[in-house]
């Protein structure tokens, strides 16, 4: 469960701060490259890009408090993006919480030279119905989309629509913890769980690999009455790779995953980048490799 400070701020652990640091590093590299595409400094000598945007589907807290030291504030993803130089042509923030959206709206006073737009609502509906339609492939526009859900809120259909637009890079924080919590330990998952996982991951064929469901012939030959469950052997990295393999069906290039762990070293999320641009993934992998060397 989320904890909140006296003014309703999120209280977050070290892993969340590290995730935001990785985001900030990539945003700086991304904005430098995209800004060059708007000028004659790009390799072709001819500008082709009209505008590029930062899209935050879970704008969350503008500032959070550190779990380790609640007197210390941590700048959230909206601030990290707004502080990035060169600046984006626009910042589009989405959140389900009216209170969070209002806090983002207040940032207009602090950043008067930034073009900020906000939506209050379900990110899947807003992205698919209002945002993606504004940046079609013919528009000479590009967008960086940060998908950092609180659990399993991002639908696979939304990811597919972002990929098909061919104008978006997505930086997604996939909840491996959310998946493992859904999977029962002592029985095969029910229809509702399978449908929910399919909605989030695009496929549930892998469930048979976990639960080792026997065929009818195997049941007759070995007289096995129950499937041999292997739920307890699930590794977070395995789930992360499963999700990445699905992403590779939609995007031309996908980075390696980096597992975000809590103070007890339990894996919570898998962070990765999906793009149609090879260079974007190379930059991400370089950033992730430096991070892993620092945390070993």
Plain-language structure description:
It is a single chain. The protein is α/β, with parallel strands linked by helices. The protein has 2 domains: 237 residues, Rossmann fold, CATH 3.40.50.150; 50 residues, no CATH class. The chain is built from 12 helices and 12 strands. The strands form 2 sheets. Strands 3, 6, 7, 8, 9, 10, 11 and 12 form an 8-stranded mixed beta sheet that branches. Strands 1-2-4-5 form a 4-stranded mixed beta sheet. Strand 8, helix 6 and strand 9 form a beta-alpha-beta unit. The longest helix has 24 residues. It is globular, with a radius of gyration of 21 Å. The chain starts with a strand and ends with a helix.
Draw up the topology in text.
Elements: E1 3-4, E2 10-12, H1 14-37, E3 51-56, E4 63-66, E5 73-75, H2 77-82, E6 90-95, H3 98-105, H4 107-110, E7 116-120, H5 123-131, E8 141-147, H6 156-165, E9 168-174, H7 176-182, H8 191-201, H9 207-211, H10 216-222, H11 236-247, E10 253-254, E11 258-261, E12 267-275, H12 278-295
Parallel strand pairs: 2-4, 3-6, 3-8, 6-7, 8-9
Antiparallel strand pairs: 1-2, 4-5, 9-12, 10-12, 11-12
Helix pairs in contact: 1-12, 5-6, 7-11
Essential attributes:
4-stranded mixed beta sheet, 2 domains, 12 strands, Rossmann fold, 296 residues, alpha/beta, globular, 8-stranded mixed beta sheet
Oligomer: single chain
- Describe the sheet with the most strands: 8 strands, mixed
Helix vs. strand class: alpha/beta
CATH class of the largest domain: Alpha Beta
Under the CATH scheme, which architecture of the largest domain would be assigned? Answer: 3-Layer(aba) Sandwich
What's the overall geometry?
Answer: globular
Low-confidence stretches: 1-8, 214-229
**Gyration radius, to the nearest Å?**
21 Å
Averaged pLDDT, please? 87
For the record, give the distance between the C-alpha atoms at the N and C termini, rounded to a whole number.
28 Å
CATH topology assignment of the largest domain: Rossmann fold
**What is the CATH superfamily classification of the largest domain?**
Vaccinia Virus protein VP39
The helical percent reads 40-55%
Count of distinct structural domains: 2
Assess the beta-strand content as a share of residues.
Answer: 15-25%
Series of secondary-structure elements, N-terminal to C-terminal: EEHEEEHEHHEHEHEHHHHHEEEH
- Give the total of beta strands: 12
Number of helices: 12
């Amino acid at each position: 469960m989320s904890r909140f400070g006296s003014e309703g701020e999120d209280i977050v652990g070290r892993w969340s701060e590290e995730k935001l640091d990785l985001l900030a590093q990539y945003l700086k590299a991304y904005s430098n490259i995209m800004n060059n595409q708007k000028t004659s400094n790009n390799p072709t000598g001819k500008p082709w890009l009209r505008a590029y945007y930062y899209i935050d589907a879970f704008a969350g807290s503008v500032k959070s408090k550190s779990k380790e030291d609640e007197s210390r504030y941590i700048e959230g993803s909206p601030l990290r993006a707004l502080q990035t130089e060169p600046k984006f042509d626009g910042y589009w923030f989405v959140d389900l919480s009216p209170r969070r959206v209002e806090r983002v709206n207040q940032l207009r006073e602090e950043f008067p030279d930034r073009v900020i737009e906000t939506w209050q609502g379900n990110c899947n509906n807003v992205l698919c119905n209002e945002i993606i339609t504004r940046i079609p492939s013919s528009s000479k526009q590009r967008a960086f989309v940060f998908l950092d859900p609180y659990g399993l809120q991002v639908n696979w259909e939304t990811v597919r629509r972002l990929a098909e637009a061919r104008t978006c890079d997505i930086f997604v924080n996939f909840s491996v913890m959310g998946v493992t919590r859904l999977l029962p330990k002592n029985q095969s998952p029910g229809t509702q769980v399978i449908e929910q996982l399919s909605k989030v991951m695009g496929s549930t064929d892998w469930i048979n690999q976990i639960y080792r469901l026997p065929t009818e012939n195997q049941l007759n030959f070995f007289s096995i009455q129950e499937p041999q469950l292997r739920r307890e052997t699930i590794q977070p990295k395995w789930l992360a790779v499963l999700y990445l393999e699905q992403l590779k069906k939609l995007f031309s290039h996908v980075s390696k995953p980096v597992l975000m762990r809590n103070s007890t070293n339990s894996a919570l999320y898998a962070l990765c980048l999906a793009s149609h641009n090879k260079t974007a993934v190379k930059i991400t992998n370089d950033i992730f490799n430096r991070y892993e060397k620092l945390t070993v």
